[in-house]
Amino acid sequence: MFIVLNKMDKKLIQKIRKQKKGHLIGVIGATMPSPEYDQDSGVEIGQRLRRYLEGRDGFIFTGGVGGVGVDIYEGVIQECDINGYYSPVKGECEKRFDDRFFVLVPEYDEEIMPPKSLAQYLGFGGETVLSAPKRLIYRPPREYLELGESSSRGCLDIVRAGENMRERREYVAGIADVLVLVNGGSGTLDEAFNAMETSVPLIVMEDSGGAAALICEAKNDTPHWKIKEQLQKRNLSIEYLQEAEIYVCKRPDEISSCLERLF
Q: Residue 13 falls within a domain, yes or no?
């Protein structure tokens, strides 16, 4: 069961879930992780998630930004290579990886205003006319695109939801059956609270630092000001967080047992 936040397009969510059958495991984390984060651990999490899905219906997804998400996809591809998770490509002898992975990204990048020298010109009568901001289609980082070339599709699987990053963050909880929280900054913390409010379970990697560590501290009655800010913004109590469905893991090899309990 999943609950949809009011601002999201319910039909779009239903369409995504119809296309991506099985359990959808989202991974949320920082674009620029804090020093506590270990890149090798991020890669291992990706490996273990892909290993869990073998023989099951489901997909892994991230928010399509750099940092933790790229490490997760790197781990997914490594696991496919090590264990031979291939998917034959029609009309080709070559086998490609059955990655079971996609990125959930917004339609557009942040609005970009051209430089002042290019953004204005003199119209008739001498008045200054400003051009409208450009809206660029969001393109995932190069690292994702290169990894996606080895998949059975031959390219990264890109799913779009929301016009900008703020809207996309809401859709993350809207389509996920569970979210794995690895490190994370303020945007990740926002995604984690969206999950709590929509009854999506969280698997939190405690030792990865960042938002993950803050949530674990709050569960132990020592909420950081960033946690208090989120609670106040949403008119929630600390008890709400402490009673949410949150599973704390210290090591990547503990994730599979959490997923077994959930599914």
A: no
